[in-house]
Amino acid sequence: MKPCAFSYVKASSLDNLLAILSDNSDAKILAGGQSLVPMMNMRLARPEMLIDINDVTELRFITEEQDHIRVGALTRYNEIIESDLIKAKIPLLSDVTEYIGYIAIRNRGTIGGSLVHNDPSAEIGVALVCLGAEVVLVNSDAEERVVPLDQFFITTYLTDIAPDEILREIRIPIPAAHSGHAFKEVSRRVGDFAMANAAALMQVGTGGEITSLSFSFGGIGDVPMQIDLNALVDNGPLVEEKLDQAVTKVLREIDPESDNVASGDYKKQLAGVLLKQVVSEAYDRATNS
Amino acid sequence: MPEKPKESAKQHPKKRRSKFDFARPRKEIRKEKKRMNVTGEYILECSKERTWRALNDPQVLSRCTPGFQSMNVVAPDHYEGVVKVGIGSISGTYKGEMKLSDKVDQEKYTIIGEGAGPIGIMNVTGNIELQELDALTTIVYSFEARIGGAVKGLAQRGLIPIAKYLIKQFFGSLAEELAAEKIENRSAHIPETST
Amino acid sequence: MTGEKWVGKRLERKEDLRFVTGHGTYTDDVTLPGMLHAAMVRSPHAHAKIKSIDCTKAQALPGVHAVITGEDAKKYWGPLPKSVDIDMKIPTVFALAVDKIYYMGEPVVAVAADTRYLAEDAVDLIEVEYEPLEIVVDTEKALAPDAPLLYPEWGNNIQCEWGMSVGPVEEIFAKADHVFEDRIPHHRYSGVPIEGRAALADYDPYNRSLKLWCSTQTPLIVRTLVAQTFDFPEHDVQVIAPDVGGAFGNKIQADAEVIPCLLSMITGRPVKWTESRQENLLSGIQCRDYVWNIKIAVDNDGTLRGLKGEVLGNVGKDGTCHAAGAGKFLVACAYLPGPYKWQAYETNTKVVVSNKAPSGAYRGYGKDIANYPMEIMMNRIADKLGISAVDLRKKNMIEADEFPYQQISGPIYDSGDYHLCLDKALDLIDYDEVRARQAKQNGKDGKYIGVGIGSMLEPSGGAVPMCIFNSYEVATVRMMPEGGFHVLTGHQNIGQGIETTLCQVVADEMACTPDDVRIIFGDTNAVPYGLGPWSSRGATFNVSCVVEAARKLKTNLLEVCANIWQCDGAELEFQGGAVVHKSDTIRRMTLKEIGNQTHLFPGAFGVVPESVSNPFEATHYWTSPVAFWKPDELGRISLYTTHPSGSSAVVVEVDTDTGKITVLDIAMCEDIGTLINPTICEGQVQGGYVQGIGGALLEELEYDEYGQLLNTDLTSYLHPLASDVPDVKVVHIQSPSPFTPLGTKGGAEGGTLMSCAVVVNAVEDALRSFDVKISDLPLTPERVKGLLNAAQAKRDARKTERERKTAPEKTPVEV
Q1: Predicted confidence band at B29 (pLDDT cuts at 50, 70, 90)?
Q2: Domain boundaries, chain A
Q3: CATH number for the domain running over C287-463+631-770
Q4: Per CB distance under 8 Å, which residues of C are interface residues toward B?
Q5: Min Cα–Cα distance to chain A from B62, Å
Q6: How far A267 CA lies from chain C's nearest CA (Å)?
Q7: Which residue spans of chain C are classified as CATH 3.90.1170.50?
Q8: Which CATH code fits A58-173?
Q9: pLDDT, chain C, mean
Q10: Do C711 and A260 touch (CB under 8 A)?
């Protein structure tokens, strides 16, 4: 199918982009186009104007600050995979990016595009929620707004970005040294959208007790969601019984929606399996690092 | 269409039935038929009478409907209009009709809505029921929607969350309307459930 | 004849150079001056009356040149003609809906505009008002007495009913030690070739001609059907099928292809239609979708006695005018007995219409429908009788020395060694090792391994009366003055390699090289009437008529040379690109020399004797020597020429935590008679097998009860990818067919038609300890998990019941 007619303009810089946006707040941003363009081709999305930001190089960067890493919104998935800095400091992020689609998609798709699109099981979103990331939005008056990622996601395909704002960068706290992380997903085929996925990040003390644990699900709620597993923190070494109890508790609390991907019941079953596998693997990594 | 009772299994012509027969009566082993169902409650600090009046006022309903574009009254409780529905990049302009029926005055009614647009067709059936306790009115709602046409597939995953979000927006706007009518500016919200 | 032999060689395909470098010419690559583009309004409802259509806004859009409804199109065309008519009800249906629509996605209005973008903009502006009708999609529901009717004049939703009964059926069933019975459903999916349908029509009023480029398997049949639809002189229609990007049976009709023809007639300009993937899934040809009720009478020792099978098939809107989908259920009935011996057989089919897209052909065409329930039942029966699945098959398979063998349902099987194929397949998968691995590893991390086996029969070279799948093929082999050859054939290259294999065949006959031969196909003005590739006809009908034509030409050329040398033709032979005298080897004339002499220097009068009717080319019309249409004394007919066969095995791993299935290993041994090009034959198995795995694990056209197709793109209609399947190990044995000149049997469908059942067998084997029985496909992780949960619930219930019965009496306590 072919998209509806639209006008097209290419932004040459961030300032130029914001200027165009201030006059055309209905416009859609074209970055990698991996989510937007298929929707346009199917005429599900009908923007009147596309602003191509692929030349706005100020939005492509990966830099290290004192306690966090800044990633520009236009950074491609493959650049994240190839970044030695991210591999060294935030390996969870490198790992999940390998699960995204196929190499052609990863060459084009961008981290900012994924977050603004907000698919419920987007691997990047799940990992960044687990990492406690925040996004920096800037509007056409150059006003900045910093929003924690879990607040940025409102509901499926909807985020807290105003029509005259762009997502400029993502700030990711650097996990402590010797953290353990894990990510797993269940999908129909290699590279497909996940039916459900999970990410975990933890630190383990000298006695084998978990001292901090951050855990998130994708595909279970309407957006990537953090799960409270504090019952496992400062509670002695991780044993199967405790983990099973945590699983039971979480399964009582979540209520996944049935949709064309899977029924709510099945998603619940996957959630239980993933929680156990991901927490165990993160624990192994943390205790062996 | 009401289900006809299934034909009983054909009588096996053989007199002696083997213990190894593993024919089973036909079960519905199909996938759970997924209809979009959204149910929930919304509490307003407002009398039942005023809530009922607002919910039957086409002007109020128009103002509260997210994406409302235009409307005209065909007959009492029968409206035609144009609504632009969508979230994020996905949106569609639907031309449709809405009827309010089975009214029990001050208590409840049924909404039947039908819309068609370039990206699909939409059928909605909803029940609204009011319950009053002290100065609060609880609106209990249950909607069943059927979406057809091209909007399925790629957008399917977002349909229920988006519907819930739009319903929340509707009731939020309604609450604001009623508050603006000189009622105290407080409303509580009980989390929805859905099937 | 001595010299290099080409048949049997693993030649690289001639056509691949243009395909892999992106230099193929597909229908969409063809552009004509002034060309317009078509798009269609498609119904969002599955069953509805059309109340009104308002095209005014669309017609006013600049760049739009034609907007036409089904009602107005009746000025130009009639209903779609039937493609099969065996005891069938023929509905009156049009390519654009008139009064009523029957399935979601059915074309209602057609638009021609300067670009496809504008055409779709125009489609958006067209307003159609519908009056929804009651919908029926489920096969069994469509048979209910009060089901909504698609064609009220029929009184029911049955398009065709057919059956047969042979042997003392009731007596056999009464006497047998066991009768096993089961209901076996199969879901709806299709071939989904990478290139969808495409058609470029050019109506030329000044030439009084209609030219149609079309992605199709059957250009000649399309020409006939298009001529019939428009009541246009067939001799003024030309169909050109350039490169075809996959077909698998999905492109054997003229359905939506007539719409650009219509638009071209209205506008007087060429009009192109290239379907989107969404259109292909929505309204392209769909397949499978049936329910079997099977009963098998068998003795304690595993000897099969009697077979009863009823199949209810769902052809969607229609199974003859839009595409020939109905016929496959008759084929299924003819071949349910498979490679086994029976004493009694009873079968019938009801072909049902419903509010889904029309059904056509897809790799198998009934042979898959026959194979699926049989191979599953064989494994289940073996399990219940405590016999191995391998032994049960071997006990009942037709023996190698029993051929030709007439199966109880009528067809005559030519040759084969079913036992050897089974042994080789098991060998290739290393069956014993898999069983050992299974015993050792099952249960670790919740993962279970299973191995499934199956055997198949692949009847090939169909010859069906009253049908486009008819009974002949014609080819011309022509030599040029310079000694090269053309083969003119109505066959079509759809990826099966005829541009190479036919060259190999001719090269052997004419003692030249494959590079000396070019296959001419795909242009109805240039080739004899041929029926195209389906039912693996290439190696049966097409190769056979080409061989016979080549031999005729050879005979004539030998006579010419004998005439030139004034000797006996028997003393001459073709060798090394020339005709040589067997004893006096100095006498040698190259093909080029012969060509020059007969055509120009000196020319025919000088060298061609009167006895030779044509020194330049020969044509042969080949029919099946073994199919017969006149019923025998038992009322049976036989429609297929050769019967390739094979067995295969699959190893799967089931993750019982998530329900996900991984295919670990695949092995197939096939007997397709003489192999012309082994690499191509192996490729057919590899691709075909993976298609069946797709059907078992991934693919489904998901219709809900409102007839809404839920998945209309490739993110939700899932195919296997290279990363999802291991390499398919293939080995061939060759039992030449006595019915074809080279002993070829045809073999493109074997992998597809059996792999579904083999995967199901493998999964049931893996989950044997859970007592899980597979019914619905595809085996999505959720479905498998559901089966495991249900089995667990049953076990828990039984356990609770046992505990309750053995619990000691509780003394009531006073409170």
Answers
A1: very low
A2: 7-52, 58-173, 180-288
A3: 3.30.365.10
A4: 44-45, 104, 124, 134, 144-146, 148, 170, 173-174, 176-183, 278, 380, 384-385, 702, 704-706, 708-713, 715-716, 773, 775-776, 783
A5: 23
A6: 9
A7: 31-133+197-244+251-283
A8: 3.30.465.10
A9: 95
A10: yes
- Residue in B with minimal Cα distance to A45: B90
- Fold entry, domain B36-180: Alpha-D-Glucose-1,6-Bisphosphate; Chain A, domain 4 (3.30.530)
Return the pLDDT at C227.
Answer: 98
Fold topology of A180-288? Enolase-like; domain 1 (3.30.390)
Span(s) in chain C for CATH 3.30.365.10: 287-463+631-770, 472-623
pLDDT tens for C436-476 read 999 999 999 999 999 999 999 999 999 988 899 999 999 99
Query: Are B91 and A118 within 8 A, CB to CB?
Result: no
Which chains would you list as touching B if contact means 3+ CB atom pairs under 8 Å? Answer: A, C
Q: Are C284 and C275 in contact (CB under 8 A)?
A: yes
Q: How many Å is the Cα radius of gyration of chain B?
A: 22
Question: Which pLDDT belongs to residue A35?
Answer: 86
Asked if C182's CB is within 8 angstroms of B153's CB, the reply is no
Residue C721 in this model has a pLDDT that exceeds 60: yes
pTM of the model: 0.91
Residues of chain B found within 8 Å of residue A38, distances taken between Cβ atoms: 154
What is the arithmetic mean of pLDDT over C403-430?
96
Question: Strand C158-166 vs strand B120-133: parallel, antiparallel, or unpaired?
Answer: unpaired
Q: Which of B92, B156, B193 sits opposite A259 (nearest CB)?
A: B156
Domain at A7-52: CATH code? 3.30.43.10
CA C687/CA C668 separation, integer angstroms:
12
Partners of C278 on chain B (C-beta within 8 Å) are 150
- Do C785 and A186 make contact, defined as CB atoms within 8 angstroms? no
Q: Is the pLDDT of residue C135 over 80?
A: yes
What is the rounded CA–CA span in Å between residue C159 and residue C82? Answer: 13
Query: Span C472-623: which CATH code?
Result: 3.30.365.10
Q: Tell me, what's the pLDDT at B91?
A: 72
Q: What is the ipTM of this complex?
A: 0.93
C-chain CB neighbours of B91 within 8 Å are none
Enumerate the residues of chain C whose CB falls inside 8 A of the CB of residue A2.
115-117, 120
Residue ranges per structural domain of chain B = 36-180
Hey, are the CB atoms on C708 and B148 less than 8 Å from each other?
A: yes
Which residue in C126, C137, C140, C178 has the most chain B C-beta atoms within 10 A of its own C-beta, making it the best mutation to test that interface? C178
Is A262's Cβ below 8 Å from some Cβ in C?
A: yes
**At C189, is the pLDDT very low, low, confident or very high (cuts 50, 70, 90)?**
very high
Q: How confident is the model at residue C809 (pLDDT cuts 50, 70, 90)?
A: low
Query: What pLDDT was estimated at residue B11?
Result: 35
Contacts of B91 in chain A (CB under 8 A): 45-46
d(CA A116, CA A169): 12
Neighbours of C298 (CB within 10 A): 27
pLDDT in the model for residue B157: 77
pLDDT for the residue C812: 62
Q: Give the pLDDT confidence of C640-680 residue by residue, as tens digits.
A: 999 999 999 999 999 999 999 999 999 999 999 999 999 99
The neighbours of chain A, by the rule of 3 or more Cβ pairs under 8 Å, are B, C
CATH code for the domain defined by C31-133+197-244+251-283 = 3.90.1170.50
Chain B residues within 8 A of C277 when measuring between CB atoms: none
